[in-house]
């Protein structure tokens, strides 16, 4: 029963991952860019740019830490390519020209980012906590 519970829990955690990360064993630092808004800024080689939120996950088998790296300009069709936002003066010019919104949104991690970003800890908590609780209830009822 314990093995079935652990396998189910592990499967659920993997199921929470995005399609890009589903079923992958992860190591090291992995960046992803979450879409925030469209822009009209011309990109290199005619590519389209969008305003994105750069999220970095640190992993050993599963992610154990997630952090927001702020807003970037993502390259459409390229899941890992981005351009850092320009310096304040050029950013103000982009806003004035209508390439970017005047009020840039504050990037925030979603509940999904937190759950998946700390999935190694959650798995360990369940793997250690479940047997402890089970033995405690067994002693209490027995």
Task: Write a concise keyword list for the protein shown above.
142 residues, alpha+beta, 3-stranded antiparallel β-sheet, 4 helices
Protein architecture, described:
- 37% of the residues lie in helices and 34% in strands.
- About 8% of the residues have low confidence.
- The chain has one domain.
- It has 4 helices and 3 strands.
- With 142 residues, the protein is of the alpha+beta class.
- The longest helix has 23 residues.
- Helix 1 runs antiparallel to helix 4.
- It has a 3-stranded antiparallel beta sheet.
DSSP helical segment count: 4
Which structural class matches the secondary elements?
Answer: alpha+beta
Shape: elongated
User: What is the count of distinct domains?
Assistant: 1
Q: How is the secondary structure organized here?
A:
Elements: H1 2-15, E1 26-42, E2 48-75, E3 82-84, H2 88-96, H3 111-117, H4 119-141
Antiparallel strand pairs: 1-2, 2-3
Helix pairs in contact: 1-4
Briefly, what is this?
The protein has 142 residues and is of the alpha+beta class.
